[in-house]
Design a protein that fits this description.
By secondary structure, the protein is α+β, with helices and mostly antiparallel strands. Helix content is about 25%, strand content about 25%. It is built from 5 helices and 12 strands.
Length: about 325
């Protein structure tokens, strides 16, 4: 699987609830980068380069907020600034830069588990065919009062949920040892409107991740060697410092990966409902921005759990 990562780039549309989730997540990520080096989150200078001709492409529509010269997140992230036209390079119409964060998820996910264990969370593995069956898995031996459904792509087939709005968006990446000490991305490429270009250097020596693709409905988990070459070439063209101005043969590859983003047509689903007499709080369908919106989404899910427990106590 592709290594997950984050660049806070405001994929969400201005004025939407999704934008609020992103906005509410940023202070938490900023605090982790500033105060918890053991979490695997660090600050990075970020530059985004845009082309107007990408507006009608698959990736352009997905990244529409990025294409704006002054996106909504300009007042949220530190050091936001417009890039002067002479620094954009050939083919780009506008660009901006700011301070963002990048996550080494191999460290971060383990850190999250440790935080949960410290607070007494009990982890269990089990197979369920229907969402309601999860209510029987509580560590107390009694039926759970609430189930929080964070099943991602599995929400497509999980009994009781079977959300037909779910689909994969295939992403392919190349992880290299080369470092450029910057994150950068473009609004599109000339290699196909479902291919993208980005690079990000992960915290704690985690390498630099090069991407990528945005292939809707593609379940293929196998590497595409031709796509890998295009990914590396675009990354080196965008950021020559990766190889000291040399070609892709000077990239020191650690591994390559493929991941399936859990996209949901209509947006992330965070709501509550009762299924077979059991309260469910759904929190899934985050596409490629799960880390970016994680704390904001969790805050809403927690509120819904509270409401659900309140409803239960009155019945």
């Amino acid at each position: 699987m592709a290594q997950a990562r984050i660049v806070v780039v405001g994929i969400s549309e201005a004025g939407t609830e999704a934008a609020e989730w992103d906005k509410n997540t940023w202070p938490e990520l900023e605090s982790l980068a500033r105060n918890h080096p053991d979490a695997g989150v660090h600050f990075q200078d970020t530059a985004i380069y845009n082309r107007k001709k990408d507006l009608e492409t698959v990736t352009g529509k997905y990244l529409a907020e990025k294409l704006k010269a002054e996106p909504w997140y300009k007042d949220i992230v530190p050091n936001f600034r417009l890039l002067p036209s002479e620094s954009l390079g050939d083919g780009f119409d506008n660009g901006h830069a700011f301070t963002s964060v990048c996550i080494n998820t191999g460290i971060y996910l383990s850190w999250l588990v440790s935080q949960c264990l410290q607070k007494g969370v009990i982890f269990k593995r089990a197979n369920v065919k229907h969402i309601s069956e999860a209510s029987q898995l509580h560590s107390s031996g009694h039926e759970a009062h609430v189930i929080v459904n964070c099943t991602g792509l599995s929400a497509l087939k999980l009994g009781g949920v079977e959300d037909k709005n779910m689909m994969p968006i295939r992403g392919q990446t190349v992880l290299v040892r080369n470092e450029a000490n910057v994150m950068c991305s473009t609004s599109g490429t000339d290699d196909g409107d479902d291919e993208v270009c980005y690079l990000m250097q992960r915290a704690a020596g985690g390498g630099t991740l090069l991407g990528g693709s945005y292939q809707r409905g593609n379940w293929d988990s196998q590497l595409d060697p031709s796509l890998a070459v295009r990914i590396m070439k675009r990354a080196v063209d965008l950021c020559p410092a990766l190889t000291g101005g040399k070609g892709i043969e000077h990239l020191d590859i650690i591994r390559q990966g493929v991941g399936l983003r859990p996209y949901r047509h209509g947006g992330t689903r965070i709501e509550k409902e009762k299924i077979k007499g059991v309260w469910i709080v759904h929190n899934y369908g985050h596409g490629g921005y799960g880390y970016q919106s994680s704390y904001g989404c969790s805050q809403k899910a927690v509120r819904l759990v509270g409401e659900t427990l309140g409803i239960r106590s009155k019945l």
